[in-house]
Write a structure and sequence with these properties.
The protein has one helix spanning 81-86, and strands spanning 15-21, 25-31, 43-51, 54-63, 65-68, 73-78, 89-96, 109-113. By secondary structure, it is mainly beta.
Length: 122
């Protein structure tokens, strides 16, 4: 796996696009994820959901699938309304596939986002 570097010799931050339809779906696209690991059978990008204000509610939402190799695009789609109601934000970690069975991330957060905007009224 190759890592793209910026003009300053640094790895660019991943770009994400999240499409959220309340109670129906969350489609999470990530671009330019760089693992630094070439063995896709041993490492995977895991997406986690959490509920703000409840540090104990952490949910493994699954792993990214390669969507478009040429665009370096990965995707994960969640359509379970119960799961969507339980999370306020999502984040991505690179995990060894054999260590995620415990249900807790051990890798550094690569991307974090809030799919549901805060209410702008009381």
């Amino acid at each position: 796996m190759f890592t793209t570097l910026t003009a300053h010799g640094k790895t660019p931050a991943p770009l994400v696009r999240v499409f959220f339809t309340e109670g129906k779906s969350l489609v999470f696209y990530a671009y330019d994820l760089s693992s630094g690991h070439s063995d896709a059978a041993t490492y995977a990008f895991y997406v986690w959901g959490k509920k703000d204000g409840d540090p104990h509610l952490l949910r493994n939402l699954g792993t990214f699938a390669k969507d478009d190799h040429a665009q370096k695009r990965w995707v994960l789609t969640i359509t379970d309304p119960k799961v969507l109601a339980e999370i306020d934000s999502v984040f991505v970690t690179l995990e060894p596939t054999d260590q995620t069975k415990a249900g807790r991330p051990s890798g550094k957060t690569a991307v974090e986002c809030i799919p549901r905007p805060p209410a702008n009224h009381p």
